[in-house]
Amino acid sequence: MAALATGDIVALELLYDRYSTLVFSVSLRVLHDSQLAEDVVQEVFLRLWRQPISYDPARGRFISWLMSVTRNRSLDELRRVTRRMRSEDVEDDEPGHEIPAEIGRAHV
Fold first, then answer.
1. Cα separation of 23 and 71, whole Å?
2. Can you list the alpha helix ranges (DSSP code H) found in 1-108?
């Protein structure tokens, strides 16, 4: 992490190689969607690159911190998806969103 803080891209590559599979599997367990889990992996490692000082070694081990970041980001994504699905359901239930029968029928 010290090397990452200096902008060392090789340090990020090493961290990615070592932990990306673990980050993906934790995210997949929360989201049950491989595409969303892949997105979370990218976001977690992008955060590492942009904010390497967000990890404080005095507060615990790196792996514990990384799993916490992964879990929290996955839960945020799950809430976002759930909110969007609920919003779409509400829109579908509102009057005026139905397809009129004459438009919905196939014209033969």
1. 9
2. 2-5, 9-31, 34-50, 62-93, 101-104
pLDDT digits (tens, 9 = 90+) for 51-89: 999 999 999 999 999 999 999 999 999 999 998 888 776
- Residue among 67, 60, 83 at smallest CA distance from 30: 67
CA distance 20 to 43: 11
Under 8 Å between Cβ of 40 and 77? yes
Residue with tokens 């990615």: 16
* Cβ-contact 79, 25 below 8 angstroms: no
Residues 19 and 23: their CA atoms lie apart, in Å, by 6
Is the whole model's pTM more than 0.85, yes or no? no
CA dihedral for 90, 94, 97, 98, sign (positive or negative): positive
**Number of neighbouring beta carbons within 10 Å of residue 4:** 19
